[in-house]
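testing teh design pipeline on a random one, pls ignore if ur not involved
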């Protein structure tokens, strides 16, 4: 507003500030933000060495070391670095509290996410869908629909992708569903897929959001 008054009506800066009810000190003020680099590095190092420590424990450790930064500032950096822990984790999955590096994929077929989706038809009959998504391009590689999908169906879908589309991933991220824990697991290994491992939260979010 002050700049517009000065350019349109050719009045002084003081006059423009008086008209807009703005103090001249506010106009001349330049924000000087502190460098968060050292504090950010220390917070990350604490979180890497003490993976079960949350924001409260990290604030206590920083105060013991002599840091006098506001807890709100520490929490802001803590969130920007993505170091948040789950507030409540299930007992059956104690590894949920550990931080894991988010994988970065740079090419097609570096990693696929495979998951099952349940739905129902208009007459109440339940159906299940096997979805396979490429984590880099977010492209849907295959969708298999049926009323009962088994481990053999997973193998056949992977074989069709390998034979007809010449598509093979380096890794496949899956959950611990019963369809992927059957006797056909050795057949999945024969499709030359190099690695099967439990899906991390980041890949789960990708596939669930796509579904």
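output:
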């Amino acid at each position: 507003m002050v700049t517009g008054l000065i350019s349109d009506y050719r009045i002084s800066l003081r006059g423009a500030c008086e008209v807009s009810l703005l103090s001249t000190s506010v106009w001349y003020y330049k924000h000087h933000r502190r460098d968060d680099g050292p504090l950010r590095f220390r917070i990350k190092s604490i979180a890497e060495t003490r993976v079960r420590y949350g924001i409260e424990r990290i604030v206590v450790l920083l105060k013991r070391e002599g840091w006098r930064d506001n807890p709100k500032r520490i929490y802001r950096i803590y969130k920007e670095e993505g170091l948040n822990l789950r507030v409540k984790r299930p007992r059956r999955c104690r590894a949920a509290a550990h931080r894991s590096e988010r994988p970065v994929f740079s090419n097609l077929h570096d990693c696929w996410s495979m998951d099952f989706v349940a739905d129902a038809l208009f007459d109440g009959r339940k159906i299940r869908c096997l979805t396979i998504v490429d984590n880099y391009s977010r492209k849907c590689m295959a969708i298999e629909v049926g009323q009962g999908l088994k481990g053999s169906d997973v193998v056949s879908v992977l074989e069709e992708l390998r034979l007809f589309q010449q598509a093979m991933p380096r890794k496949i991220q899956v959950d611990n569903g019963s369809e992927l824990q059957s006797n056909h697991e050795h057949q999945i290994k024969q499709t030359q897929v190099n690695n099967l491992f439990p899906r991390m939260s980041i890949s789960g979010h990708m596939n669930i959001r796509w579904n």
